[in-house]
Design brief:
The complex is a heterodimer of chains A (231) and B (808). Chain A contains 8 helices and 10 strands. The longest helix of chain A has 16 residues, at 174-189. Chain A has 2 domains: 1-59 and 71-84 and 160-224, Rossmann fold; 96-158. Helices cover 35% and strands 28% of the residues of chain A. In chain A, helix 3 (100-110) packs across helix 4 (115-128), helix 4 (115-128) crosses helix 5 (144-156) and helix 5 (144-156) packs parallel to helix 6. In chain B, the strands form 4 sheets. In chain B, strands 1, 2, 3, 4, 7, 8, 9, 10, 11, 12, 13 and 14 form a 12-stranded mixed sheet that branches. In chain B, strands 17-18-23-20-22-21 form a 6-stranded mixed beta barrel. Chain B is of the alpha+beta class. Chain B folds into 3 domains: 1-44 and 290-462 and 677-806, no CATH class; 69-260, no CATH class; 473-673, no CATH class. Helices cover 50% and strands 18% of the residues of chain B. The A-B interface holds A 45, 49, 52, 54-55, 74-75, 78-79, 81-83, 87, 89-91, 93-98, 102, 105-107, 109-112, 154 and B 1, 4, 7-8, 11-12, 15, 324-325, 327-336, 338, 414-416, 419-421. The structure holds adenosine-5'-triphosphate and magnesium ion (MG).
Chain lengths: 231, 808
């Protein structure tokens, strides 16, 4: 699904140029659950954003499901992203002025689905995330764990092939964090590919494979034998 | 999608209610002001617009030259113009001659009724103009001598019915008229507003009778007083027709004119231009002022722009608050165009709400506005399609102008940057925001400087000494109906008035101060000069008491006096008059004889120039001619405060001397100051809308200050923890606005100086622009801005830093 070759990303500000990613090579297959780890500032989020087509690489190639992404215009990236990708962030990033239902419904609106099918899909996923009873609430009326479940619901409502999660448990206590990890695992078991950035060793155990980044480069890759056996 | 956008727009509006109130309130005030002014402008520019043939109907304008120099401009010209031009120029389809004449008094059922606005007109009047004739035959309504058409309301007033065709109307001291037509009352937006329209044939007959058959107006090239309107054939080029005038005029030029080295030039003026662009001699009705209309239009423009700028400023200042939403929307699949659409929808919502509010405000404000501006806007406005078209246009322009920039800025946010979990600090748009604030300040300053200039000029005009004493002067309008005994009657009347103890003096004159001198005489020169040096002068006929009563200051010679036998041939000229005759030293002019249409008069005195009319107008060369039994206004200088009984006593005398005439009086200073009504009105309107503009700008400034202060809450907190004083913090917050104000001030100076001096050019006597005209508004704006900004800044600087830092 993901073929990344010799990928470079540098940020230019007025004075300095930061090389956030340096010659990264990475393959992710359909159905995999990949964790990305590394010290702060090593380029994890940058890599995830490029995979998520929110950003363009400076150099190198990125092939997503057979499409070359590097060098695409913003509008083309949006087109390719729509419905294929779901995002989960550390800070939830729900829209404060929209209700739970409306937040989850948003991706479907941009996919121009009709109202009835939107309602059906949103309710289904909300039930699955055990948050359906809160559909009319606004984000600030929910706990962090509940908010993150809504964010996951929003990420999966379009049935994406790939879910990208940037420290999804970073703002949660361990109980809520575990719940989130279980949900992601469940989704993965149903066939969704997942790439997740994390700082937590605990969370990394849910991944099949962990990629370690240091200073913009992949230094090690470790396979989680226990999980692989389970698959 | 649309619903989702609307929903979020609405929720944002409710959530940030202070921001919304500021924005919508400002926009609503802006739109209201703009609509009110636009209606006024629309009305002022709609004059003569209703004539079906307005594109090919022109009024013939006359310019009089002496020795090649333009001396006077006239709304009317020679009587022969209409028929002669039509005869010689095939492109002319029809002409209308209109002659204004004095008021008449009709006798009905033993009651007398005075009718003003009396005109003669040729039969073509109702064909060329689109004034609707309600009853009467369009082809012959004004054909016969002794016939007349009257307006609907006059018909009802006189006869109690509109069915008046064929009725005879007795005129006091004149021949009866047969009513042959009734026309709808003239609309407001037209210059000619006759109450009584007699046939031009009647006038021709009168002239014949008075001159024993020697004169016919249609051949008259030498006497003036006829308004001529021409309707050209369709598709005719007006300038080509105009070019054919000169040879005809030349051919008919009298020997007298040729010798006088004078000439008349005729040209065409579209009737739709008359109201705003002509204020010539002999206008048959009030005219407006194009400059005023366009200045007000400018104000409307400023106000609405200020309101839109508020929206732009506040929407972009708030962009940070919307950044996350944009980021999320983009991550879940929105493209940039969809976001642009969304933010346009939001500005549409704000503008539409403001518009609704504005309509309500307008409905409430119409009566007040009418009082302020002297306009007659009515609620009928709301049923006019043009009004709604204008409104829609305003909405669309508003949505676009105010929505475009915020939409572009907001939709540009990159999700990667704004979703980091921290707030991105958008320096974006700060420069634009600052420029817009500078614009608002500059516009407010400009308007304030303008208001001050207008007020100062009006004050100046009212306080400036006129060179004439018009205080405590009662004026009585001369009688209309008189007989051959008038002269002796009038002298006896004056004599009797003097017996009233509260009356100090009585005088009579053809024209009183505050009125245009309509007696214009060309061809006046020194007896010793050749005819080619003759020039035009304005003439006032006065009795012996005039000079003394009005306190004319003589700079040479003496006043009229009946102690000298030869005074009836005496004249007094003003300084401008002797200057035109060629004397620099007034003493030199004394005793010189002038030739006035074949008669000779001696200059016995020279008066200092005085303001016969509004200070808007320059001094004109005047000939004050002694006519001991002059027919004109009676003016009385009063010395008592018991005005009521004096007026009553004068009335008693009036009724015994001039029975059948209405007693009409007024006070001269009021009458004179009435000339400034339009100026004062303009001042008030200007001031009112300036106030609104500043209010709207303040609303915006308040909103902006709140946001910038809010953004700096954390910075303020840290500074305080590190030991900054409250004053230090305030300085920090004010510094930015102070700088913007200074820039605005510098920009506004040249612009307002240019506009104000341009406006003042319209006044012959005007104030000099003083530095305080700029400083005062600046101080006012600084204070207003200070108060506005302080609301938020003081709160922020006093806040406990622990709170703001914990909130991070
Ligand atoms: N927009 C940007 N402009 C300039 N430099 C950037 C930008 N975004 C990231 N960087 C730099 O790129 C490098 C990688 O950043 P990135 O956010 O990917 O780190 P990270 O591994 O996600 O760190 P953390 O674990 O703290 O989230 C850092 O050195 C960062 O300073
Ligand atoms: Mg990161």
């Amino acid at each position: 699904m993901i073929r990344i070759k010799e990928l470079k990303k540098s940020f230019k500000t007025e004075e300095v140029e930061t090389l956030a990613l340096n010659k990264v090579n990475l393959h992710v297959e359909d159905g995999e659950f990949v964790g990305i780890m590394g010290p702060s500032g090593c380029g994890k989020s940058t890599l995830l954003n490029i995979i998520g087509m929110l950003d363009n690489p400076t150099e190198g190639s990125y092939n997503f499901a057979g499409n070359e992404v590097a060098g695409l215009k913003e509008s083309q990236r949006t087109q390719l992203r729509k419905g294929n990708l779901g995002f989960v962030f550390q800070s939830f990033n729900l829209i404060d002025e929209l209700t739970v239902f409306e937040n989850v419904e948003l991706p479907l609106i941009y996919l121009k689905e009709n109202k009835a099918s939107r309602r059906e899909k949103v309710m289904k996923v909300l039930e699955r995330m055990k948050i359906a009873h809160r559909e009319k609430h606004f984000p600030h009326q929910l706990s962090g764990g509940q908010q993150q479940r809504v964010a996951i619901a929003r990420a999966v409502v379009t049935n994406p092939k790939l879910i990208l999660a940037d420290e999804p448990t970073g703002n949660l206590d361990s109980k809520n964090g575990l719940e989130v990890m279980n949900l992601l695992t469940e989704l993965n078991q149903e066939g969704t590919t997942i790439v997740m950035v994390t700082h937590s060793d605990h969370d990394s155990h849910f991944a099949h494979r962990v990629v370690n980044l240091f200073d913009g480069q992949i230094v090690t890759e470790s396979h989680n034998r226990a999980l692989e056996a389970r698959v | 999608m649309f619903k989702n956008y609307l929903k979020i727009a609405w929720r944002n509006l409710i959530k940030n209610s202070a921001y919304s109130v500021i924005n919508i309130g400002g926009l609503a005030i802006g739109i209201t002001a703009c609509l009110l002014i636009l209606q006024y402008v629309a009305f002022e520019t709609s004059y003569e617009d209703f004539h079906t043939n307005k594109d090919r109907v022109f009024r013939v304008k006359q310019e009089r030259y002496n020795a090649g120099k333009l001396e006077t401009e006239w709304a009317g010209g020679a009587f022969a113009v209409g028929n002669s031009f039509k005869e010689a120029i095939p492109e002319i389809e029809e002409f209308v001659k209109v002659v204004q004449t004095q008021d008449i008094i009709v006798d009905v059922n033993d009651e007398t009724l005075k009718i003003d606005q009396v005109f003669f007109a040729t039969n073509s009047f109702f064909n060329v103009f689109s004034y609707p004739l309600l009853a009467g035959d369009l082809n012959s309504v004004l054909k016969e001598p002794g016939t007349a058409a009257i307006s609907e309301s006059i018909a009802v007033k006189i006869f109690g019915t509109k069915e008046v065709i064929g009725k005879m109307l007795p005129i006091s001291g004149g021949k009866d008229y047969r009513i042959t037509g009734v026309y709808e009352d003239m609309p407001l937006n037209t210059q000619l507003k006759p109450n009584f329209l007699a046939s031009y044939a009647t006038f021709v007959e009168q002239v014949k009778t008075n001159s024993n058959g020697e004169q016919t107006p249609d051949d008259a090239w030498d006497w003036d007083g006829c308004l001529t309107y021409l309707m050209l054939k369709e598709g005719t080029d007006a300038s080509a027709v105009e070019a054919k005038f000169a040879p005809i005029v030349k051919e008919n030029e009298s020997d007298f004119t040729k010798q006088s080295n004078s000439s008349a030039k005729y040209s065409l003026m579209p009737i739709t231009d008359i109201h705003l662009y002509s204020n010539f001699m002999m206008e048959p009705g009030a005219t407006g002022d194009g400059k005023t209309v366009y200045l007000l239009f400018g104000i409307a423009f400023f106000i609405i722009i200020i309101a839109w700028v508020n929206y732009i400023n506040l929407a972009t200042a708030r962009a940070i608050g919307r950044a996350k939403e944009v980021g999320v929307r983009k991550t879940v699949g929105s493209n940039r165009n969809q976001l642009i659409g969304q933010f346009f929808l939001e500005s549409a919502l704000f503008n539409a709400l403001a518009l609704v509010l504005a309509l309500g405000l307008m409905a409430i404000l119409i009566p007040a506005f009418n009082q302020l501006s002297g306009q007659e806007l009515s609620y009928a406005l709301f049923s006019k399609s043009t009004f709604w078209i204008g409104l829609t246009a305003l909405l669309l322009i508003g949505v676009f102008l105010s929505g475009a920039y915020p939409a572009i800025v907001l939709s540009r946010f990159k999700p990667v940057e704004v979703l980091k979990g921290k707030m991105a600090n958008t320096q974006q748009g700060t420069l634009l925001r600052k420029s817009l604030v500078v614009f608002q300040f500059a516009a407010s300053l400009f308007l304030l400087i303008g208001t001050l200039t207008v007020y100062k000029q009006i004050q100046f005009m009212r306080q400036q000494s006129l060179g004439l004493d018009i205080d405590k002067t009662l004026v009585v309008v001369p009688p209309i109906v008189t007989d051959s005994t008038y002269l002796s009657q009038m002298l006896a009347f004056k004599e009797n008035l003097l017996k009233i103890p509260s009356i100090k003096s009585v005088a009579a004159a053809t024209t009183i101060p505050g009125q245009p001198v309509n007696w214009n005489a060309g061809g006046i020169k020194l007896v010793s000069q050749g005819q080619e040096l003759a020039k035009q002068y304005r003439v006032i006929g006065v009795d012996y008491d005039y000079v003394d009563q009005f306190g004319l200051k003589l700079i040479a010679g003496r006043a009229f006096s009946d102690e000298f036998g030869a005074d009836p041939e005496a004249v007094i000229l003003n300084r401008a008059g002797i200057l035109q005759l060629g004397f620099n030293d007034p003493e030199e002019a004394i005793g010189k004889r002038i030739d006035f249409w074949g008669n000779q008069y001696t200059i016995i005195g020279v008066s200092e120039n005085f303001n016969q009319e509004s200070l808007r107008l320059p001094y004109e060369p005047l000939v004050i001619r002694l006519i001991p039994d002059v027919r004109g206004f009676f003016t009385m200088k009063l010395n008592s405060s018991d005005i009521g009984s004096t007026i009553a006593q004068v009335e008693t005398q009036w009724n015994s001397f001039f029975p059948g005439n209405t007693y009409e009086y007024f006070f001269l200073d009021d009458h004179f100051n009435d000339q400034y009504l339009a100026d004062q009105r303009f001042g008030k309107v200007f001031g009112f809308f300036t106030g609104l503009a500043i209010l709207v700008a303040c609303l915006g400034l308040f909103g902006l200050a709140s946001f910038t202060t809010l953004q700096r809450t954390k910075e303020i907190g840290i500074r305080k923890v590190l030991g900054a004083s409250v004053l230090g913090i305030l300085k920090l917050l004010y510094r930015e606005f102070a700088f913007l104000l200074m820039v605005a001030f510098l920009i506004s100076i040249p612009v307002s100086w240019f506009t104000a001096s341009n406006w003042l050019q319209g006044y012959a006597f005007r104030i000099d622009i003083h530095w305080s005209f700029f400083m005062l508004p600046f101080v006012v704006i600084v204070l207003i801005a200070l108060v506005t900004v302080s609301f938020q800044s003081i709160k922020a600087s006093l806040a406990n830093p622990v709170k703001s830092l914990r909130a991070e």
